Amino acid sequence: MRTIFSVILLLINAWANAQIKMQPLASVNLPKNLRFQGRPVQSIKYQDNTGSYLALTTQTGEQPQKGDDDFKQAHLYGYVYQLKDGVTPVLLWQLHDMVTECNLDMVANFIPASLSITDLDKNGKAEVWVAYRLSCRGDISPSELKIIMHEGTTKYAKRGIGKIMAGKAIQHDGGVITSDEFKKAPVSFKIYAGKLWDKYVLETM
What we know:
Layout: H1 2-18, E1 21-24, E2 39-48, E3 51-59, E4 63-65, E5 68-84, E6 87-102, E7 105-110, E8 116-118, E9 127-137, E10 144-151, E11 154-161, E12 163-166, E13 169-170, E14 176-180, H2 187-200, E15 202-204
């Protein structure tokens, strides 16, 4: 009986995983009628049991601060659109974060390849993950690190301060989580968010 139950469980998990289909999309292949701000960083087209979607991250890079050219600003955006044949993509949610009024060294970047799609709870509904750093600094100090996840309209975030690796030396300060909404999330989300934090916490200079 236990063997039969294990086989059934494996089949259920395989079916759930099969519901998520993903395809990285080059920026030149983005739909022409897609509306977004900034320059594309990474995009993934995916399909789950609720429909077809496009996840996109963009960033502006450093720009003059509006109204004061002595300062700089930079903006990050994340988007998820629902795709339907012959219909303009519908924006489902948008992330927007920024560094403003900065006259020092600025960091406002998505971590490379951090946009990812999972189905950790095996419900056939995709989870969309992004991670990025923000700072305005005049010395060797760590950036703010944020890991954001959406499953439909449900959002979780882990926020904190990363750590700096300068050469082969890791600075002592930083590495602190200041806010963790994953404490209230399903265990699979919580574990995965922790793994991403450990993966991204070090910032190389």
